[in-house]
Amino acid sequence: MTSSVSSEQSMPLEMAAVETSANLAELTRADFPLLGQTACLGQPLIYMDHAATSQKPRQVLDALQHYYDHDNANVHRGAHQLSVRATEDFERARQKVADFIAASSAREIVFTRNASEAINLVARTWGDANLHEGDEVLLTLMEHHSNIVPWQMLAKRTGCVLRFVDLTDCGELDLNDLRHKLSERTRLISLAHLSNVLGCFNPISEVTAEAHRFGALVLLDACQSLPHMPVDVSRLGCDFLVGSSHKLCGPTGMGFLWAREELLDAMPPFLGGGEMIQDVYLDHSSWADLPYKFEAGTPAIGEAIGMGVALDYLNQVGLDRIHAWEQQLTLQLFDRLQAIDGLTILGPTPQQEPDRAVLAAFTVDGLHPNDVGALLDSAGICIRSGHHCTQPLHRHYGIPGSARASLSFTNTPEEVDRFAEELVATIGFLREHS
Ligand SMILES: *Cc1c(COP(=O)(O)O)cnc(C)c1O
User: Fold this and answer.
1) CA 116–ligand 1 middle distance (angstroms)
2) What is the pTM of this model?
3) Which of 6, 19, 224, 316 is the most buried (most CB within 10 A)?
4) Is 389 part of the annotated catalytic residue set?
């Protein structure tokens, strides 16, 4: 398969440059075994639920198999050759994460089970140690439940207050409202880089500049942005960043927290147990160095290695090229959806916001999103319907849920057309039978 991206073989030179015309679906599709399957009634399966979880290229699946076939052992014990190899590969994966977000050191990367756990880690350690009654945490109306609930729990424990930044009329972050709500009481702004519903990229450099003027820190939930564009923590100026392997073509059960070293150093540990200690006595213990202080117990070793290979894969395809190709798909997707009568898309249109992610959450007048999703599923098309872990956002719009098609670089223009055609047929059928 000469056209597919292999981890052994590096990209041909002419493909290393950013060409906006590159059809990445053509180039990468054969790497994803799952995407080649046939759905019910012999139709090709169309996967458009990448914002919920990504599919995995065979390079990642092979890495998992290889780890268990050849190297499986517990890490950081150094007792034998298997443990040495497992530890080297595990720590190499940590360095790959650091490089992926341009962190200055792998010591700043803490492995967690997922992004939710990474946010809970910050709330339970930094939050408990630093926040007091009357301090404020600023969130936004577009946050995922994972970036709301841990802060509600923190507010209960410490008496800190949560405030929510509003949205503009077209469904983007309202920077004026953010400036209005920011004050000396604000200790942290925690927000998504890319909304998993509105599809807008938030202006993080501006947010961090505003926050730092008041001495507030910024936590960036980069779950959705990391698969779609290059992310550089030093350029964005954030203080914490969380990401999730399963949204990045990697295995489930793996996520990470990045924070500046001096912040991590000053934070108390999260969970207690093996691996996170230096010395244990009957009545007290001392903590291991960074990042191990935050990693109690045996980690998800194979999954970390798999995530590292997933990041290699995304780097080889090229985040700039992914972004450019997905912009083309976005324009096509919106062109087709905007032509459908009675369909309303949440968030900005590409006309309002040219740099918009390749996802569309929408409602159709008079129809329930679950019915739309179920009928499309019977045509072999996987989209999501519901609140997408953003109930407050849907409540803001006065709707219980929406249907959402979220694409990736593996989607083809033909799939976008077929999705739009099936959607028109679905809407017609439901209207006729309601
Ligand atoms: C998926 C997602 C999360 C949660 O990530 P997990 O790794 O599943 O815990 C948080 N925020 C956003 C924006 C997401 O898309």
Assistant:
1) 6
2) 0.95
3) 224
4) yes
